[in-house]
Amino acid sequence: MSGLSCCALRSGSSGNSTLFCSPDGRVLVDLGINGRSFVSALQEISFPEDLIHTINGILVTHEHRDHIAGLGVIMRRYKLPVYMNRKTFEAAAQSLGKVDLNLIHLIYPEEAFELGGFHITPFRTSHDAADPMAYTLENEQGKVAICTDLGIMQEHIMSHLRGSRLVYIEANFEPQLLAGGPYPAALKARIRGERGHLSNEDCARVCADLIQGGTEQFMLSHLSRENNYPDMARLVVRQGLEAVGALEDRDYRLDVSRRYKASEPVQLD
Questions:
Q1: 3-state DSSP assignment of residue 54
Q2: Crossing angle for the helix pair 35-44 and 71-78, nearest 10 degrees?
Q3: How many Cα atoms sit within 13 Å of 174 on the Cβ side?
Q4: What is the pTM of this model?
Q5: What gap in Å lies between CA 123 and CA 30, rounded to an integer?
Q6: 190: which of 115, 119, 196, 263 lies 20 to 30 Å off by Cα?
Q7: pLDDT in tens for each of the 269 residues of the chain?
C-alpha cells in the first residue's frame, strides 16, 4: 500500500467507524457497529477478516453507543488495543463488559502520540459526553482529520483542522427539518445546543474556512436520518463554498459518508 487511504465504514446515529491506512499500519476511529456489521463493512472494501488483528489500534471519540457498540466484542475477539481518555473509559466501562484492561491505553487531549505509522493528536470537542474528542492523523502524505459530534465549532478545534488535506466533518441536521420533525422539544434543543450537533449551515461555514487553508476534500459525516438528506447537506455546503469563490471538482472534492454501507475509500498520495 502506498499513500494514505481513508474510509468511513459506517456513519450516522446508527453507528460510526472510520478506517485509516498508511504503508506502516492501520488505525480505526470508533466502533459503533456490532461485530458482524464490522466484519461485513470491512469485506465491502476487500479487507479480509483474517487481517483484522493487524489493525494497530482503535481511537475512541466518546462513549455514546453509536461510537462504541461493538468495541467490547472486538476487543475480546481480536485483542485490539484501544485508545481513549480516562473519563471516556470510565463512562464506557459498563458497556464494554469484561475486557483485558491491558488493551486500554489512556490518552490525553493535546498530547500527540504515534500509532500505525501516524502522528495522532487528540483534541477536545463540545458534546454531551464525558470528555469527547476528535483526532488528526498525519504521515508523509499530509494530515487528515475526523471531527463529528460537536455542538459548536471553537477556534481551538479549527486550529487543529486547518491544514488537513481531508476532513470528515459533521453535517448533522437541517434546521427546518429538525424544527418541523417529530422529536420532542427537549431533544430538539439538545441537538441545536452547544453540546449537540452541527447543522448543515454550521458545516458550510467550517468548510469555507478550511478550504482557504488548503483542505482538498470534505466528507460530510454523521448525518441525521430524520433531520437531514445527503443531497441537502451537499447543496448547503457547496453553496457556502461557492460564496468564498470555491468550485467543486476544481478547488475541492465533496462527498457524504454513508450510513449503512462502506463509503468509497479516499486515497491520498
A1: helix
A2: 80
A3: 17
A4: 0.96
A5: 15
A6: 263
A7: 468 999 999 999 999 999 999 999 999 999 999 999 999 999 999 999 999 999 999 999 999 999 999 999 999 999 999 999 999 999 999 999 999 999 999 999 999 999 999 999 999 999 999 999 999 999 999 999 999 999 999 999 999 999 999 999 999 999 999 999 999 999 999 999 999 999 999 999 999 999 999 999 999 999 999 999 999 999 999 999 999 999 999 999 999 999 999 999 999 98
